[in-house]
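HUMAN: Can I see a protein plus its fold?

ASSISTANT:
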Amino acid sequence: MGYRTFLVHVDDSEQSERRLKVAAQLARAFCGELEGVYVTSTREMTPFTSAILPDSVVENRLRESGDAQARAEERFRAAVAAEHLTAARFTAPAGAPIDAAILHTCYADIAVVGQPLPDDAHAAFANDLVHGMLMGAGRPVLLVPHFGQFPTVGTNVLVAWKETRESARAVCDALPFLKRASKVAVMSISEPGDGSVRESQSDAGIAAYLARHDIEAKVRHEIAEDIDVGNLLLSRAADLSCDLIVMGAYSRPRISELVLGGVTRLMLQAMTVPVLMSH
């Protein structure tokens, strides 16, 4: 069991190189294919827009758009060459960018995207892209932090476990990583005052599930006394020198939209290592 198709979000930003490197390394490690999907917040020039703008403005916008796409593809090709990948393709789909990204992700095993960069001019688009892919594609999403270097991903894994659909989905989606990992730690966290019987049963259950997949994991339960769950999880990941966190992506309904839950939102803001999320 393994990933066969990796999709990576490509644009012409500096952060793109970091996630391209991670995605290409993983595609090589899993002997998989790599698809680079170029989507940006820049709106396409529609026929109507082209008709009402001066020719010089239209030409300048088209040239800038073409140059940005060319730079992005050049970065993609460089990452592919560095890992000697033979199965790789670059795609620049037309239409609404987030919808296009979601659609392409449906045909991949896993998507690799960047952590939204705070205060960036395109931060809103980056957040919408991550949210859309997490909630709409039905595939695991690997988020790469916007700072740091990640020569390995998935050799030392921390699983955030909770008896929920999202958490169970994340563990199942991460099995290819977990089977290859040298170390797997499973951490369940409860709030002060929560019952201990269910938690002990839950810990035994996830340990047995992983054992049936020949994955030896150390399971531990902690109570978040003076720290919130997300920061406790990040602290333990640092203590254990983990290079991947696996967790469910949670949302809360708000009228007609889904809003990311508190722990999910914090991880997106403060992650220090790659995080695999599933919804």
User: Anything to note?
Assistant: The first strand starts at residue 5 and ends at 10. The chain has a mean pLDDT of 87. Residues 144 and 237 are 15 Å apart (CA to CA). DSSP finds ten helices and twelve strands in the chain.
